[in-house]
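Before relying on records like the one below, remember that each one covers exactly one chain. Contacts with other chains, cofactors or solvent are not represented anywhere in the record.
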Amino acid sequence: MKGKVGLWIDHRKAVIVSIKGDLEDIKSITSGMEKHVRFSGGAQKDSEEDQRDRKFIIHLNRYYDKVISLVKDAESILIVGPGEAKGELKKRFESGTQIGRVVSLEAADKMTDPQIAAKVREHFSI
């Protein structure tokens, strides 16, 4: 998938827009995760919470690795999204062989697929 790639991501879903010349490809990936809830409580609950948090992190890392596998050949990458997922994905990129490929990180609320594609085209001036 040589070319420019933009993706919108949160902890539940990623929308990947690949642009090469006049061709545009849009893919969606779901993480299969429910909303992560953090609790505060006594020492007894900490072990349960710690286990739940570890499972959440492992699941997120698998999700991010799947997203990275779909954009690994891109020349340039734009990551947008509403929360922490975009920064977490960027860190995951930087911990692997994708160093230097993330062009930009931008905050963005919920967007439709056409809005994401338009943002990617605008960013890369296509």
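The chain has a mean pLDDT of 84.
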